[in-house]
Amino acid sequence: MIEALLQTLLNGAASGGVYALVALGYTLVFSVLGVINFAQGALFSLGGYLTYLLMGGRIGVNGALPGWGLPAGLPFWLALLLAAAGSGLVALLVERVAFAPLRRRGAEPLLALITSLGAGVVLVNLLQILMGAEGYAFPQESGALAGLPEVLMIGGARIRTIQLLLLLVCSAAVVGLSLWLERSRGGQALRAVAEDATTAQLLGINSDAMVRLAFVLSGALAGLGGSLIGMSVSLPGPYFGIGYGLKGLAVLVLGGLGSVPGAIAGGLLMGLAEALVPAEASGWRDALAFAILFAVLLLRPSGLLGRRTVDKV
Amino acid sequence: MTSSPATPSPTGRRAVRSDERRRGVLRLASLLLAGIGAIAWLGRSADPASRPLAAGPLSLGAAIALTGNANLYGQDQRIGLALAERWAQQDAAGGRAVRVWLEDGASDEPSAIAAFNLLIRQGVIALIGPTLSQQAFAADPIAQRQGVPVVAPSNTAKGIPQIGHFISRVSAQSSVIAPLSIDEALRRDPSIQRVAVFYAHDDAYSTAEVQIFDKALAARGLTPVTVQRTQLADNDFQTPITNALQRAPQLVVLSVQAVAGGNLIRQLRELGYRGQIVVGNGLNTPNIYPICQRWCDGILIAQAYSPELNTPINRDFQRLYRQARGDRRPPQITAQAFTAYQVLHEAIQRLHSKGGLTGVTLGQARVRLMHELLAGRYETPLGPIGFSPEGEVQQQRFYVAEVRMDPSGRDGRFALVGQRSLNGARP
C-alpha cells in the first residue's frame, strides 16, 4: 500500500515538475505583459533539438542536411545550458517579431496571442524542414546517465534515474528562479514592471529591457524542459513540445495567472492528478486532470494562488 | 433636463443603433448567401468528373502524412511512391503515363479531408491514402460519394473497404497478421500466462488492433492481467508501466503508433521489464530504432512484407530503395506505398490497352478503373496479391520478424523469424 502510494507520488512529481517548468515560462511573460506566449511549446521542442545537436547528434535522412552534425559533441550538462541559452535567444526574437510591433502600436493583447501562435507554428515547421520528421534519441553514453543505473528503487517504488534527475533539475530551476525574483535587484525590477510598468519606468527601471529579460528567461525555461524531456523520452518529432505547451497553459490557469508559486503548485497538482488515475481509466487521464482544473476554477476563478482582481469603476 | 429635437433621446439612439445593426447583419447574411451560391455554382460547373478524360498523363492523388505525429509513416510512404514512379518509368513505352500529385494529409482528420477534396477537384483519377485508419474513416466517404477509387496503403483497421465500393486497400487487416507474433512468443516461451496489454484508446487503428490481439490471446487461453490505455500523444509512460509491472507480466503486447511505441519499449526495459514484447503494425517502421535504440532488440512483430522475398519485383524494389537510401532494407510501409501505386498503374495500363480510357469522362474512367483494379492479380513486393469484390486485399504470405539492433544500438533490422501462408502452413 505504502509502496503504491510512494510510486504514485513519484510518478506525479516527475511529470508535475516539467509542467511547472513550462508554466513558469508562461507566467514570466504573462506577469509583465498580460499576454500568453503561445510559442512556448515550440521553444520547448527547439531546446530538445539544440541539445541533441550540441551533443553531436546527426540530422536524419529526412532533414535538410542529412547526416550533418557538429564535428564533436559536448557533454550533456554543457549542451543543456547552451540549448537553454539558445532557446532564450530565440524567445527574444519571438518577442521582437511577434510582440514588440503590436505593443508599440497599442494593439489589443488578443492579437499577440495570434502572432505568437503563428511564430510557434513557423518555428516548429522550420524544425521539421531542418531536422526531418523522424525521432531522435540523445546518445546515452555521452549523456547525463553515464555510469548510473537505469532505474532506482526508492522504498519499493521504482523510478527511472533520468526522471529523478529531471525532477531534481526542474526543482533547482524553479527554486533558483523564485529566489532570483525575490532577492535580486533584477528580479525585483522585473516584479515591479509586472506590478505597474509605467510606475516602474518612472522609478528608473527600463521596462522594455525587463520585458526582453522575461522572454529570454521564459524561453530558457522552455528549452531546459524540452532538453530534459528529450533525454527522458527522446525527441519524438518537432511537434512534441506543443502538447507540453498546452499542459503548461492549463497549469498556468490552475495555479493562477501570473503567480510563480501558483505555477509550481499547479504543476505538481496536475502531475499528481494524472498519476492518481487508475489503470482502468488511464486513457482518460487528461480528461480527469482537466476536470480538476474545471472544478478548481469554479471554486476559485483566479486559480489556486492567483490574486483576485477588482475592476475599478 | 430636456432633450432637443436634433438630439435623439437615449432610447431613440438605442433604437437607431439596433436598426443599423439589424441592417448590417442582413447585408452580411445576403453577402454570405450570395457568396455560398456563387461558390456552389462555380464548383458545380467546375466538377472535373463530368469533363472528357484529357489525353496525356493521368494523375494519381496521394494524401499522406507529411506533417504531424504520423509523418514518420508519411515519410516512408513518400519514398515508396517516388520509387514506384521511377519503376513505372523504366518500361513506360506504349503505356499511359501516370504521375503522382502529393498532398500533405497531415495526421488529423480535417487535413486528410481537405487533401482529398483538393486532389479530387484537381481531377485525379484515383487516390492513395490517407496514412492513418482514423483519417480514412473521415476522408474515404468523401471519395466514395464522388466516385473516386481509393487504395489505402497503410490502413489496417477493421471496416476500411466496407466504407464503400470505391475503397480498397493493400494493407492487410490487423486480424490476419497480428496473431502471428503472439504465436511466435508462445513458441519461444510456452509457460507464458500473464500478459499486459497497452494500447492508445484514442486511435482507431490501435483500438481495432487491440481487439484482434485480445481475441488471439483468448483463443490461446490467455487473459490479460492488465490493460493500460494510453493516448496518441503520450510519450511518458512511467505511470502505466509501473502499474503494469506490479502484475508481473511475462509478455507485453503493444498496439500504439511508432513514436509512442518506441518510447514505451525503452521505458519498459529501463523500468526493469525483461520479458518478451510483441508489437502491432504501428511499429512496422525503422523509424522506431532511434527512439528505443538498443532496447528495441528482440521485439516481435508480424509483417505483411519481407525484404527476403526473392521475386523479380521485390528485387527491383530493393535495388531502387538502395539507390535512394543507401545500404538499408526497405520497411513494410514503403513497400505497401509502392504496391498501392503499382496496382493502380497496372490497372490503368490494362484499361488503356483495352481502349477503356478513350471517349469517356473522368467520372466514367474512375468507375472503370475501380472495376479493373479489383479484377486484377498483381505480382508485388508484398508477394502475389488480389482484391476481394469488397476491396479487401487478398495476400498469400505473412511474416514474423524480430528486431535485431546493431552493436551501436543506433540502427537495426527486422530479421525474419517465421513465415506463414494463408492456409496456415509454416515453412
Question: Could you characterize the architecture of this molecule?
Answer:
- The complex is a heterodimer of chains A (313) and B (427).
- By secondary structure, chain A is mainly α.
- Chain A contains eleven helices and two strands.
- Chain A has helices at residues 2-33, 40-54, 76-104, 109-131, 161-183, 185-195, 197-202, 207-233, 240-255, 260-276, 285-299; strands spanning 151-154, 157-160.
- In chain A, helix 1 (2-33) crosses helix 6, helix 3 packs across helix 8 and helix 9 runs parallel beside helix 11.
- The longest helix of chain A has 32 residues, at 2-33.
- Chain B is of the alpha/beta class.
- Chain B folds into two domains: 58-172 and 309-395, Response regulator (Rossmann fold); 175-303 and 399-421, Response regulator (Rossmann fold), CATH 3.40.50.
- In chain B, 44% of the residues lie in helices and 19% in strands.
- Chain B has a seven-stranded mixed beta sheet with strand order 7-6-8-9-10-14-15, with helices on both faces. Chain B has a five-stranded parallel beta sheet with strand order 2-1-3-4-5, sandwiched between helices.
- Classes of the chains: A mainly alpha (313), B alpha/beta (427).
Question: What descriptors fit this protein?
Answer:
heterodimer; A: 313 residues; mainly alpha; two-stranded antiparallel ribbon; 11 helices; 2 strands; 68% helix; B: 427 residues; alpha/beta; Rossmann fold; 7-stranded mixed sheet; 5-stranded parallel sheet; 12 helices; 15 strands; 44% helix; globular; disordered N terminus; disordered C terminus
Mean pLDDT across every amino acid position of chain A: 86
From the coordinates shown, what is the CATH architecture of the largest domain in chain B? 3-Layer(aba) Sandwich
CATH fold call of the largest domain in chain B: Rossmann fold
Distance between the termini of chain A: 55 Å
The biggest sheet of chain A, with number of strands, parallel, antiparallel or mixed sense and barrel status, is: 2 strands, antiparallel
| Global outline of chain B | globular
